[in-house]
Design brief:
The chain is 40% helix and 16% strand. The chain has 399 residues and is α/β, with parallel strands linked by helices. Helix 4 packs across helix 8.
């Protein structure tokens, strides 16, 4: 040990935070002390009573038995890319490029890494999925937040979005359906954002990973169906709508005027080549998922609607809490009507009750009022017990 010095992590790691996973460290302390836990923090359907469709499992297993365990093409196997391409054409989307990635997260990473230089900024929804800000911190870029309006069903505040743009702005991230609010954006809202991107020469990063998990009876509107000229990368995958997050299979679809996006796409392809490939056998589940039956969604949406309605009813009945009704994904984002720091609120809630949720400020600086995110994937019995504990906690702290 003599002469050796402590290893110092790089500066790019100093501001990387991921509240959804970080909060588990506190929960583990209660668990080690013998306390029980109600995990309402991780958006993984398979951890609860949702099952991966058997035809996806069979397709990936068959691929392994057929020895598709070598490296695959860096951008994805032709069968999978062709299936995604045909799926796009059904919506009258004409892709310039399709890339298969290790989850939609890697596609987001590629897009940001190929676009952002030190000091550049990207407009992120607040509240919004914290992966974007974590990646921007690593890239030494700036997360520039735009507000979602709680009083308008968590729709983006377009005026505020425009006010955040400067000459260092490179892109607008749109998460629809939104994580953590469950908001599903209207066509007018999407058109307004596209027009802002057109006027300011910005790339749109459209995160549509929850596109098939919509509970208001309306179809999802892919942004690329509205406009084929503005540069856009659409992120999707198998994780959420096809109930197999552990497969780690996603994709990025790039659309827009070819002469505007060709160099950007080549930058993403360089990153794909450098990491070799996404999981080869799991890619064979893509065509089966897109072209096969979607019966699993009938059961999944039935469960989610019931658990969503229970969640909204129970939370709104608790003194000191209010909750907008989410229309997509499997999250709710209730507001706490107390003068508290939401992170401290969540820490105390976990310590006293074992109910594990995520503090609202972990999803960005807006709104300024305290919120927390709940995952309503568990069964009604588990949710009711968790809400009983939250209600008792609020009574103790509000009198």
């Amino acid at each position: 040990m003599k002469g050796l010095k402590k290893i110092v992590p790089s500066q790019r790691t100093q501001h990387i935070e991921y509240a959804i996973r970080d909060i588990v460290l506190l929960a583990n302390k209660r668990k080690k002390a013998g306390g029980d836990l109600f995990y309402l923090n991780i958006g993984d359907p398979v951890l609860y009573d949702f099952k991966t469709p058997i035809h996806l499992i069979e397709a990936s297993s068959k691929a392994m038995f057929e020895n598709h365990t070598s490296y695959a093409q860096s951008e994805g196997i032709p069968e999978a890319i062709d299936a995604i391409h045909k799926d796009c054409l059904k919506d009258k989307i004409n892709p310039f490029d399709i890339m298969i990635t290790t989850g939609a997260s890697e596609a987001i990473d590629f897009a940001l890494s190929a676009l952002v230089n030190r000091g550049d900024n990207v407009l992120l929804p607040s509240p919004g999925y914290p992966l974007y800000s974590a990646l921007l911190a690593r890239l030494l870029g700036e997360s520039r937040y735009y507000k979602l309006d709680e009083d308008n069903n968590w729709m983006p505040d377009i005026d505020h979005l425009v006010s955040q743009i400067d000459d260092k702005t490179k892109a607008i991230a749109v998460i629809n359906p939104n994580n953590p609010t469950g908001a599903v954006y209207s066509e007018k809202t999407l058109r307004d954002i596209i027009e802002v991107a057109r006027q300011h020469n910005l790339v749109i990063l459209s995160d549509e990973i929850y596109s098939k998990l919509i509970m208001n009876g309306q179809p999802h509107i892919p942004m690329a169906t509205i406009d084929n000229e503005v540069p856009m990368v659409t992120f999707n995958g198998l994780s959420k709508s096809y109930l197999c997050p552990g497969f780690r299979i996603g994709w990025g679809i790039t659309t827009g005027e070819p002469e505007l996006i060709s160099d950007f796409v080549e930058g993403m392809k360089k990153l794909a080549r450098a990491r070799l490939c996404a999981c080869h056998p799991k890619q064979y589940a893509i065509s089966v998922a897109l072209n096969g039956n979607h019966d699993h969604l009938i059961e999944a949406l039935d469960k989610l609607k019931k658990r969503r309605d229970l969640t909204v009813e129970r939370l709104n009945s608790i003194k000191g809490i209010s909750c907008q009704k989410p229309n997509g994904a499997f999250y709710a984002f209730p507001k706490v009507h107390l003068d508290v720091d939401d992170e401290e609120f969540v820490k105390q809630l976990i310590k006293e009750t074992g109910v594990v949720v995520v503090h609202g400020s972990g999803f960005g600086p807006y709104p300024k009022s305290p919120h927390f995110r709940i995952v309503f994937l568990p069964s009604e019995d588990i949710l009711n017990e968790a809400y009983n504990r939250i209600e008792a906690f609020m009574k103790r702290h509000t009198g």
